[in-house]
Amino acid sequence: MSSxxxxxxxxxxxxxxxxxxxxxxxxxxxxEALADAGLDWKDIQFGFGGSSAAGNADAVxxxxxxxxxxxxxxxxGCATGGSALLSGYWAIKSGEFDLxxxxxFDKHPRGAFNADPEDWGLPAxxxxxxxxxxxxxxxxxxxxxxxxxxxxxxxxxxxxxxxFENGVRTPHAWRREAVDLDTILGxxxxxxxxxxxxxxxxAEGGAALILASDRKMRExxxxxxxxxxxxxxxxxxxxFEVFAPSLDVERGPSPTEIASKAAYEMAGVGPQDINxxxxxxxxxxxxxxxxxxxxxxxxxEQERLIGEGATRLGGSMPVNTDGGCLACGEPIGASGLRQVxxxxxxxxxxxxxxxxxxxxxxxxxxxxxxxxxxxxILEA
Amino acid sequence: xxxxxxxxxxxxERADGPRLIGGRRKSDGRIVFPMPKGADGAEFDAVELKxxxxxxxxxxxxxxxxxxxxxPGDDRSFKPYAVGYVELPGEVIVESRLLVxxxxxxxxxxxxxxxxxxxxxxxxxSDVLTYAFRAA
Lengths: 380, 136
Known about the structure:
The complex is a heterodimer of chains A (380) and B (136).
Chain A (H helix, E strand, L loop, with lengths): L3 E12 L6 H16 L8 E5 L9 H5 L5 E4 L6 H14 L5 E9 L16 H5 L5 H16 L3 H16 L12 H6 L2 E3 L2 E2 L8 E10 H7 L5 E9 L11 E2 L7 H13 L8 E4 L4 H10 L8 H7 L15 H5 L3 H16 L13 E8 L3 E8 L1
Parallel strand pairs in A: 2-3, 2-4, 10-11
Antiparallel strand pairs in A: 1-7, 4-7, 5-6, 8-12, 11-12
Helix pairs in contact in A: 3-13, 6-10
Chain B lengths: L2 E3 L5 E4 L2 E9 L5 E2 L5 H4 L2 E5 L3 E10 L19 E8 L3 E8 L11 E11 L5 E9 L1
Parallel strand pairs in B: 1-10, 8-10
Antiparallel strand pairs in B: 2-3, 3-4, 3-5, 6-7, 6-9, 7-8, 9-10
């Protein structure tokens, strides 16, 4: 069976871009990815793309050229990018196609996301009485996790401090100034125990990847990391997810745990083989919990590892080398692909200023409402 | 003063206090809250949940949420409120607003009891009630 490779990657810097639509940023990323691979749009056989708040992804077609290409819009919440990647992976793996694009872009209004209960099959009172906020969910998940596994407030601050440090070194990051630990810990409390600097913000940006079969890659004289494993999993009974008026007393695994396990099995590698990881850091606590949910450490070990600097650049387990969502912000349609873009740069030795030396296996995980997780494992 | 619940079928008043109304799935006994409505509701029997449990997790809402939140006041007059999950032993873990004078007194595992609170007022002056938990 053919293997799937990422032969081109493009990104429009994340942040706020008043003069550009979300679509403009998607087109920018797509053109950059094609240029990276030295390909023309007319070479592309298929596309999967997503945007949550900036229109239909297939609106890129008139801009890129109406070639009749098969293009499918993907909508899977915060895991839209990961889902587009998995769809493209399957398209090539099936043998049906051998060259395509996966892409995503977005542009969100400022401030926290607000949701309409009806869209989620929830009663109106849940929103009216002020319980339908993603920020509350993240705060309550880490609050309980802290109680069970002993994670200090300082550790939550260190995660954000590291994110902004890495953002300084990353051209596509939004927040590119370091913020010291005291400022992070002393900033406005948003939802206890999480302060303003511990939360990412909705943002704008675009990301695109060119996927090719190994045969096509060789035929075109290209190269690029191989997708060794890719998975998307949704929630099971007993998981703790956003927008849940009730939870089962009997607790179960998270969608991240089951997606991670599936991707490791598919890739034939384990957590000990990972050289660089990009994991969902909607807020500081999410990075802490996702370290364990992705098997990168045992529950509770984060307190020591983060305190020792293991997740920083130069540490034993660099996490979110481009500053993650905390420094890049979260344009939903592009966020998961931004993680994979960063791993491609790391595995190709192009992550200047933030390069993990000798990185061979890169791991990425994006999590989103209403409870799904997408994982991709790449090999240089 | 007239009062009305924020939604019908959410809770009932008993002599010793309110009870939340959950749903027990007919096929496997799994309990959910609130009681599902419409077609989904046909698969559940309505059950009154235990009024007491333990705090499972919590946070404090420090900024005024965007709509559909329709609590009183504006961004300036907004008063932070606590929310949390309360485990009702052997039944289900429910999300709720929490009534507490001092947020620092909240701790996971503390005993909690169901009550109701006036959440907001209608333009005609009637009070809108919702459920909440307070320290038992």
